[in-house]
């Protein structure tokens, strides 16, 4: 923070009222998420609240972690666990957070650069930061912190000494920008482009344009591209000439930047109004990157950098893989790959991310130099962060990072450069560790990731953890505030890999998990998952294991009830059980006429503690079965009430699966059971666009062949090429879960965005596709499903359901998790 806030000042900034006075101190740090609390010293916890989330429930947890000052908008019912805390009541905690940010912004003496537009904001921000780093000590907002909460939080990271700050502004509906503008007060705005879709919560493209341009209301300069005609027209009509900085492919503007494209690199020729010329060389040749780079050049020139200074920075620009990903490492390690981050804020975000992962033997950090000036300070702050996040071992790469030598507790080893590290690397040094690899592009830390990554063949299933959280919250919004959510993570979380997904579900505060078999539950417990877990179909032999791992069995028959009762006979404690009511599925469960007998049994076995009672709908997705489903629900209500009437405590009742949540919102009972919807498939088809695909199955092109007329491809000569053509062989087959029914043109894949149909029969480990007339090279990636290929259509093309495709993906396919 730029200006620490003593309590009286804080009160006036947020217009707050003290309702409990305990400790007081100058605030210099803001926390909004209890999971990310590391240094509690001088921290203020702001309890944000949304329609389905209220951090006021986490005050005690924050207190426990050392927080002593709180901003709240609703008085907690019980303050007994907050003895020495200071509680400050405000009308809206979000507003208060924004007020504190605006106050900090007013006291920042450097210049603020902000970005708006539909695409490219994050990448322009990252690149501009890399270029400015050659000359200025500056700040940039982490990742895509660009929302009503993200912008204020990122402003808190600006420090006194920064000369510049680059902040991204993102809006999703009208009026949000005015608010962001008052917080950011940018001096320079870059308007990247407008995009084509008018979605994003706006009525029309022109409304969107008008809203986005509000960011520049009080700015000294706005940078834009002449070729974006709508943007240019609007800005030129609504802003004074003196405030506009225009660039274009052609002359007559402030910066004429023309491109000469070559194969692997391009030249950008700058012609300034005074006719001075300069030629930049960049390692990109695609249109989007070349546009982004020219925004960066225009901004850097406007901020006083010379063309040679800019060129020096351009040499190190690489395509950004913006995503932080989690990968399977060698020797049972887990890798967090964040190899593009090059500043303190980035380090902080990735250390926080590390903190949220499942615990392993040690936390290891592999870190390079920061590309910033003001070194000693930066490294002191880094040392602080590393200590706070309890990193066990640091591998430090570079020359400037030797500043960390001053901090003996860090347990650091130093390497001159990445090559030096790799030469001295012994893979045996890493075992069951959680390893974060982060640093500047220039150091090519991806070479280290490559060494430490477990290598499997070329097929991977990528899981987007943000999309998963998005889908979870989407369903959560369909529910009453008090309805709990049990998430079905059976069958390896529908193929996605259960441990990482379960970990994410703990973070988004799911209430319960369910698996099919005991060993699936044990696997989760062994991977540090602490949520309650229901087991749908436990075998009696597994009761001892269930009991020791605190797994909760479903009981569906009298014989099972008897065996469980016998097993529990000599136990002092109780076990939570769940009762399955068969109301029409006729799979497992008690029938209505068995309830009386069931009640009698339960009364004699008080240590079988009924935690929930449920039923399962047979056709919740199909309006055709509406009456049948309603009858099931009615039968269930009767059965449940009859069982409850003899129980000491009322258990949770639940009936709805994903489709049921959409079609029977009035029957939520106490909990719902979310399955396929979480994984991005909306089976009723009613709300499909609101969900995000969470997984992408990819493989690589192993070989390309050009075949003469009359050739055939694959087993039994099924693939016919009467006119000849070109084929690509992909590293995926039915043993990986690519269904054999996709053979002979039934299925297709996407390679570089182009549709390539399957030719011939799918083999066990390989598949051939027809790429005649397409642009494909060996080593290219092919998307089997994911963006552009919908799982639902794919499934219906071979007469099956998305559930089957998802769960069929073989365990030999590597799972990669990422988070944006
Ligand atoms: C799998 C399962 C669900 C989830 O169903 P979806 O259609 O995937 O939402 C819910 N309840 C039970 C008992 C299940 O077995």
UniProtKB/TrEMBL annotation:
Record has Amino-acid biosynthesis as a keyword: no
The organism's place on the tree of life at top rank: Bacteria
Signal peptide span: none
Coiled coil: none
Organism: Litoribacter ruber
Any one GO CC term of the record: cytosol
Alanine racemase C-terminal domain residues: 694-818
Family classification: Belongs to the alanine racemase family.
Modified residues (N6-(pyridoxal phosphate)lysine): 490
GO BP of this protein: D-alanine biosynthetic process
Biological function: Catalyzes the interconversion of L-alanine and D-alanine. May also act on other amino acids.
HAMAP family membership: Ala_racemase
Pfam families: Ala_racemase_C (PF00842), Ala_racemase_N (PF01168), Mur_ligase_M (PF08245)
EC number in record: 5.1.1.1
Protein name per UniProt: Alanine racemase
